[in-house]
Amino acid sequence: MDELLVVSTGGTIDKVYFDDKSDYQVGEPQIGNILRELGVAFRFTVVPALRKDSLHLTDEDRALVRALIAAQPQRHVLVTHGTDTMVETARVLADLPGKTIVLTGALNPARFRGSDAEFNIGCAVGAVQALPPGAWIAMNGRVWDPAKVRKNAAANRFEAVGGEAPG
Description:
Oligomer: single chain
CATH topology: Rossmann fold
Helix content: 25-40%
CATH architecture: 3-Layer(aba) Sandwich
Radius of gyration: 15 Å
Number of strands: 10
Largest sheet: 6 strands, mixed
CATH superfamily: L-asparaginase, N-terminal domain
Number of helices: 4
Structural class: alpha/beta
Order of helices and strands: EEEHEHEHEHEEEE
Strand order of the largest sheet: 4-1-5-6-7-8
Strand content: 25-35%
Number of domains: 1
């Protein structure tokens, strides 16, 4: 991998909570700090595309992310995204030619102790280097084809639909 393009769209991974009485805000992308703290041995560029909860993403937002990725030279792309509509965005990105795109996020904000953010990012970094071109989802220690996965909101996890995950 020459260089990893990281596109942040917001979501829980970047949420900031101020106190028990206030709502959250989607803050600055956390992934650059996480990758630096982990001491990764590859170059990466973080492009903040959006700062939205994924429930608020529109078709126009998804088209913007698609165009942004298509315009960049990097072949390996990691997208941080909210989990609620991650599958829909992955499906929009799946046929971008010559790009291996892995979407990941977190069920708890990266700033929280015990967040799944670092684990999911690590899984996504490995997946983006090993998978063929297309779009994929890396969550909960699994890599999913977006055509064969859904988020089970009640269980707060991803699960297979009509087939098993590739790995």
